[in-house]
Amino acid sequence: MAISTPLLFSFHSFLSPSTKLSYPFSLFNSTSFSNLLPIRSSYSQNGNASSSDPFNFREPEIPSMSSFQLSMNESSKPSSSRWRRVLLKVSGEALAGDQLQNIDPKITMAIAREVASVTRLGIEVALVVGGGNIFRGSSWAGCSGLDRSSADYIGMLATVMNAIFLQATMESIGIPTRVQTAFRMSEVAEPYIRRRAVRHLEKGRVVIFAAGIGNPFFTTDTAAALRCAEINAEVVLKATNVDGVYDHDPKLNPQARLLDTLTYQEVISKDLSVMDMTAITLCQENNIPVVVFNLNKPGNIEKAIKGERVGTLIGATWNSTCQEHEKI
């Protein structure tokens, strides 16, 4: 007679730990039975486990509360960091480095190493990558009959190429990474799903958002502001080839002064070429500060992610905290 799985579990639940089990062998097959029941130790009267019974049942191991508390403490916000979750925007031009090739491996490795150093502190990092080093849609629109929408879609594909390169670089040094694209490319990346992206971040993975927002006529700066708001990141860190925002073009005016802080309104009214107006307005409406800094200076990415003073801060002040910064 075979005993069904529910019956075996029901019968087993009535047995105390001190009961020495001795089932008739004819009632069940011993091989399949080991897969049906949790193993419980058989105890003798003096409390020691008995090894004479061929059917010894051991208590399943239960994780201790101390290990759970340790994992919770490890994921808590580091005291030295201003931000808990950040979105790093890397322009395509910055990835080109010395402009001798589309992507400079030294630049991508430098990004990966500095991101790795902050993720070990428990800071959650997401990236939005541009594609201007390979193809800029706005520059090619109108060439050989190429309309703006088609040109922008080609530019979105360029961002996917950069994202896959960055992912490979980061994973080569042990950083778990996921690429999510705004339109489906299931063979090479995940589709963008907000809740899945947040879950990846909570598990300590770096998420790279590619293909912009999936629509033409929008820049990757807008994608950075939008994704930052969606995943509840606390700041947009815009990595560029300049030290920050200047009051004049430093290429044209050697006396141009680097600005320490700016308000959203100053960026809009002075038409400063920091981000496009759609992106800056989106940051203003959602009270998202923006840090503009130089990607090419070693240590700047780590400083920016930690919230240290670097570059130009827009929409907040340096002496405020990420929870208390004032919309200006």
TrEMBL record:
Q: Name one GO cellular component term.
A: cytoplasm
Molecular functions per Gene Ontology: ATP binding; UMP kinase activity
Instruction: Record the organism.
Output: Lupinus albus
Uppermost EC category: transferase
Which UniProt keywords are given for this protein, alphabetically ordered? ATP-binding, Kinase, Nucleotide-binding, Pyrimidine biosynthesis, Transferase
Q: What is this protein called?
A: UMP kinase
Location of the Aspartate/glutamate/uridylate kinase domain:
85-294
Instruction: Give the record's family classification.
Output: Belongs to the UMP kinase family.
According to its UniProt entry, one GO biological process term is: 'de novo' CTP biosynthetic process
SUPFAM superfamilies attached here? Carbamate kinase-like
Keyword tRNA processing: yes or no? no
Q: Does the keyword Transferase apply?
A: yes
Q: What is its EC number?
A: 2.7.4.22
Quote the InterPro entries the UniProt record gives: AceGlu_kinase-like_sf, Asp/Glu/Uridylate_kinase, Uridylate_kinase_bac
**What metabolic or biological pathway is this protein involved in?**
Pyrimidine metabolism; CTP biosynthesis via de novo pathway; UDP from UMP (UMPK route): step 1/1
